[in-house]
Amino acid sequence: MSNAVATPPVDAGAGRTVPAERTGRTTLSMNQAINAALHDALAENPRTLVLGEDVGRLGGVFRVTDGLQAKFGADRVFDTPLAESGILGMSAGLAMAGYHPIPEVQFDGFTYPAINQLVTQIARMNFRTRGALPMPITLRMPSFGGIQSPELHSESLEWLFAHVAGLKVVSPSSPHQAYHLLRHAAQRPDPVVYMEPKSRYWQKGRVDFDEPGNLEGAHVARAGRHLTLVAWGAMVSRCLQAAEAAAEDGLDVEVLDLRWLSPIDADALAASISKTRRAVVVHEAPKTAGLGAEVSQLITERCFGTLKAPVERVTGFDVPFPSGSLENEYIPNIDRILYGIQRVLEYRRG
Amino acid sequence: MAELSFPLPDLGEGLIEATILEWLVEEGEHVERNQPLVEVETTKSSLELPSPQTGVVVRTHGGPGETIDVGDPLIVFEVPDDTAGIIGTVPKDEKPKRRVRLNVDLDD
Amino acid sequence: MNTLSYGRAALPDAELVRLFSQMTQVRHLDTSAIAWQRQGILPGYAPMRGQEAAQVGSVAALDMSRDFVFPTYREMGAALAAGVDMGEYMATHKATWNGGMYDARETRVTPIQTVIGGSALHAVGWAHGQRLDAAAAGADEPLDLPVALVYLGDGASSQGDIHEAMNFAGVFETPTVFFVQNNGWAISVPTERQVAGGSVAARGAGYGIASIHVDGNDVEAVVQATRAAVAHARSGAGPAVVEAMTYRRGPHSTSDDPGRYRSLAEERRDGGVDPMDALRDRLLEAGALTAEDVAAIQSEAEAFEERVRADVQAQGPRPGAEMFEYVYQEMPAPLREQAAAWREESDHV
């Protein structure tokens, strides 16, 4: 397939050249919101670059970078050879030259060939050089499952990234969050891994350009009194659905969208769970040594005295992410979340 | 909606152009991938080109008897904005089914 | 194979004397650093004996006011020639700070790199940045670009990142010079068991990269070959590979025992002429130096080593707070809490 005519870039502030002036509210899908954020990041800072496999002429395999090369030129939005270590290593060098690269790894699982550059170089360069060569790199990747994709296209790697000192990790759950968190990440002087929930790319939502809200830490996606569901990425919308189901049964559930997976907003966890006294953490990654264990421990450290029950985890299983026909068995669904909630409700100190 | 344009492909053996014999689809028509689109004639043979895309035809380029160069636009489709990427499916955003009912007995 | 040619005109005697002085400093400091390890001053060191001509000569071809050097962990000679403070350099071997204490931005030398082949892609990215800068400034051809020179060895050439770096450099035509010191050995594995086809430079052809084979023990040839490669890259013609054939005359590191994989007789046979001796004899024969000059240069090198030794010995441990301070530019709250707990609970001043 060649010569595809690109969808025009999303540009709510059409005709404006200063994206800071992008104003008002609009409805966008998440991939359009990310596209808008990349557009504005490129417009705001002439040293911002977008690079990766197929991000230029094609506009990315999910069209997230659609129209950006046409607008900003092939020097600033460019296709690289097919080599993830190369993309990240080159980004490190560009950062050394004073650029702010926003590399894309085309799919979560393709990060594995680039782990060396990510962990041994990008994450440590600021430390190694005592701050002389910081790495203002925003690494984007479509993440998590839910679209019946082939093997290694549905990984949840937050457990890995969050464990690496020197990286910060964030995952948006809505178009509004996606726009503002990416703008925020791209302005940071440290490397940020930005995990895009690929199953949510097409869901539309309101984006308010004037009111980003607090971009640090967690976000209460739904307030409730009885129990807190802790989630991030695509699991936030699933938890909101579970909360609605629970409400039908008379349980008022709070959903805390963690957003930042490194650092984790322990204060927000404590504030929520001191109130609800019950917690279930939900994620797609396998259970053992997943980020749910970290979240659970942070809750235990801060809320042990008030907890009504041990923190429950509803997660993927300790198996390789299965093929599409089985992914609905693997990814936490409403019923498994409700079972987790029920276990918490039924716990009695013995 | 977005437009997706396809050029006349290289039909092989170094041919640089083809002549439109007959369009088999009309503007506004919904076509399926691999559905025959157009009959063309080259210096070697005449052949049918199958559609590379599912979608609604927005425009066709060139009428019967006209010659199109390889690489020039042949047909433009309208496709939904939410077509999936290179791989995978677009998940449906439907109200989820639930089986489990909670037994809520709070001892607060 | 796109072989780059280079001039064979002799360098001026004064320049060769300057190079000889630097090489003498490097040789003496390298020899001393091994002794320091035996004396308990350094926990470990990676000697570079025999690679003085390749390292000092290659840096001599650079303009350190605008070029950038990407070393491995065996580039003490290159770092010295590039102007890095040797006490700050040795800080990595002293275990004071991984990567060294020198300022990478000020010195234009990236930190000491322990990952084999880890820096090559950085040199490509940095060099691509220079190209983008020139394009943004509307510079005309032929360009006059700052150049990235990255060191790698025959062992590193096996790494996937080296392939990716050379391919990216070829695709983006970045002003990158890949300076390969083929010293015959990657720890215990000889080049013939390391490099299929026998030549790293020959691989340049596959990437459309200009390449040069040069005698890495001949400092004059190294300077001229690297100058040709740098000029090629600087003009915007794309990357270049220089493969300097040399010999690791010492062990891989101070904890290595070469006797387990090569004999002294083999070392003598394969090592060829010591580059230090070759240059000294040539300068003596040409009358550019007298025996007294050589002795004076040696004394200066010894005095220099004494100063570096004093610097290294004076290095205490870094303040523990730096362990937290340099992880991020913007320290996250949990790390701040850990730093506070460390301050509270650890036994330190």
Automatic annotation (TrEMBL), chain A:
The entry's keywords: Oxidoreductase
SUPFAM superfamilies attached to this UniProt entry: Thiamin diphosphate-binding fold (THDP-binding), TK C-terminal domain-like
Domain Transketolase-like pyrimidine-binding: 28-203
Domain of life: Bacteria
Pfam entry (one): Transket_pyr
Obligatory cofactor(s): thiamine diphosphate
Region described as Disordered: spans on this chain: 1-21
EC top class, as a word: oxidoreductase
InterPro entries assigned to the protein according to its UniProt record, in alphabetical order: THDP-binding (IPR029061), Transketo_C/PFOR_II (IPR009014), Transketolase-like_Pyr-bd (IPR005475), Transketolase_C (IPR033248)
UniProt-listed SMART domains: Transket_pyr (SM00861)
EC number: 1.2.4.4
Name this polypeptide is given: 3-methyl-2-oxobutanoate dehydrogenase (2-methylpropanoyl-transferring)
UniProt organism field: Zhihengliuella salsuginis
From TrEMBL, chain B:
Annotated organism of origin: Zhihengliuella salsuginis
Keyword Acyltransferase recorded: yes
UniProt KW Ribonucleoprotein keyword: no
Pfam family, one: Biotin_lipoyl
InterPro entries hit by this protein: 2-oxoA_DH_lipoyl-BS, 2-oxoacid_DH_E2_comp, Biotin_lipoyl, Single_hybrid_motif
Ranges annotated as biased composition (Polar residues): 43-54
Keywords: Acyltransferase, Lipoyl, Transferase
CDD domains: lipoyl_domain (cd06849)
Name the UniProt record assigns to this protein: Lipoyl-binding domain-containing protein
Domain of life: Bacteria
Cofactors, names only: (R)-lipoate
Start and end residues of each Lipoyl-binding domain: 1-78
Entry-linked Gene3D superfamilies: 2.40.50.100
Region feature (Disordered): 42-64
TrEMBL record, chain C:
Keywords: Oxidoreductase, Thiamine pyrophosphate
Biased composition annotated in UniProt, kind: Basic and acidic residues: 254-274
Region annotated Disordered, chain positions: 249-274
SUPFAM superfamilies on file: Thiamin diphosphate-binding fold (THDP-binding) (SSF52518)
Domain Dehydrogenase E1 component: from-to ranges: 23-303
Catalytic activity of the protein: N(6)-[(R)-lipoyl]-L-lysyl-[protein] + 3-methyl-2-oxobutanoate + H(+) = N(6)-[(R)-S(8)-2-methylpropanoyldihydrolipoyl]-L-lysyl-[protein] + CO2
Essential cofactor(s): thiamine diphosphate
Assigned EC number: 1.2.4.4
Family stated for the protein in its record: Belongs to the BCKDHA family.
Task of the protein: The branched-chain alpha-keto dehydrogenase complex catalyzes the overall conversion of alpha-keto acids to acyl-CoA and CO(2). It contains multiple copies of three enzymatic components: branched-chain alpha-keto acid decarboxylase (E1), lipoamide acyltransferase (E2) and lipoamide dehydrogenase (E3).
UniProt name for this protein: 2-oxoisovalerate dehydrogenase subunit alpha
Gene that this polypeptide is encoded by: pdhA
